[in-house]
Amino acid sequence: MSNQTALYNQHLNLGAKMVDFAGWQMPIQYKNLKEEVKAIRESVGVFDVSHMGEFFIRGNDALKFVDYMVTNDIAGAQIGKAIYSPLCREDGTIIDDLIVYKLANDEILICVNASNIEKDFQWFEKHVQDFDCQLKNESDEYSLLALQGPKSFEVLSKCDLGFQVNDIEYYSIQAHDANGSKTLIARTGYTGEDGFEIFGPHDLIKNLWNQLMELNVMPCGLGARDVLRLEVCYPLYGHELTDEITPLDCGLKWTVKLKKENFIGKTFLESYQPKYQLLKLVLDKGIPRDHYVVEDENGNQLGEVTSGTMSVILGKGIALARVEKKLYSEDMKINVDIRGRKYMAQVTKKPFVVGGHK
Predict the structure, then answer these.
(1) Does domain 3-50+142-231 have CATH number 3.30.470.20?
(2) Which of 73, 96, 199, 257 might form a disulfide with 116, Cβ 3.0–4.6 angstroms?
(3) pLDDT in tens, 52-67
């Protein structure tokens, strides 16, 4: 039996097409995926992402503990900042990617992928006893909305949350107490556009969703979310990131702070030579899909597509692909095998679409 978010009935009433995703009944699209993507790029849209997990770490060693657990620099970040980071094992392989919200030195929120809640929590639990802090999985207590698009602040300012919403910096978070419960507003999201993620009690989030619908904000599903994140080349766990590879194999070297005194996986990653490289591919014809083979012009397999779709903004096929470093060179011509036919792909350095985040 799949879990349902607090907004399940609202999705049904809006005619959403529901699918099972990471054990949750989630809307994949409402009326039109293209319109949902365009709303986020040009105006504003909202996603129910309540299936994501929320862990809180509180206590004297909260900061020290989290900084040790993840590869990115948490200790050096300012209070109120959000930090994207992989979570790795001793051998450098990725358990998950997550966002750390530094509420205070003694209180940290970690937002994790829905499919990895139990796996991640067990990993944190295994290591927390060496530190003076408490780890709590509060995923069941929070619903989460992602309001995304250039008009997101303008729209959120019109909503009554019981407090004034501030125009905070990108990748920052603010905590508010409204009616005796904590609500967290973060200027984060996974679309490349400006936007806010609102963590709050179920009733507050239901009320906010209803207000957004009255303001004609476009409800958006997981299908649009996937196109949007791929257009700006954001990786997704289970696709670009897996249990078998390290952050250095998938374009996340920037998140691995080897100058940090210590973190799990540091010793291994210091001497590791990456086996893979992530390529950004654009196709004038054909739609690339996950696991399609990527070849050189002589038909030699280099790797495979990790995420592929038709870009709504470009009107072209786009893909991220993992290739073996030793087989690939920048002067190669690249083809993608789509159901037995070879389609030429251009390798690009920059994201396919430039988002408009602050």
Answers:
(1) no
(2) 96
(3) 999 999 999 999 999 9
pLDDT tens per residue across span 87-136: 999 999 999 999 999 999 999 999 999 999 999 999 999 999 999 999 99
DSSP string, 280-317: EEEESSS---TT-EEEETTS-EEEEEEEEEE-TTT-SE
DSSP string for 107-144 = EEEEEE-GGGHHHHHHHHHHHHTTSS-EEEE-GGG-EE
Tokens of 14: 């809006």
Rounded CA-CA distance 181/183 in Å is 7
Opening angle at CA 257, ends 123 and 271, nearest 5: 85
Confidence grade of residue 178 (pLDDT, cut at 50, 70, 90): confident
Residue 91 Cα distances to 70, 264, 266, 355, angstroms: 13, 9, 9, 34
pLDDT of residue 358 exceeding 80? no
- In this prediction the pTM is 0.97
Question: Nearest 5 degrees, angle CA 112-CA 118-CA 119?
Answer: 85
Under 8 Å between Cβ of 198 and 185: yes
Q: How far apart are CA 247 and CA 229, in angstroms?
A: 18
CA distance 142 to 163: 18
Fold of 275-358: Elongation Factor Tu (Ef-tu); domain 3 (2.40.30)
Mean pLDDT of 292-302: 97
CA distance 167 to 156: 10
* Domain boundaries of the chain, sorted by first residue: 3-50+142-231, 54-139, 275-358
- Is-same-fold flag (3-50+142-231; 275-358)? no
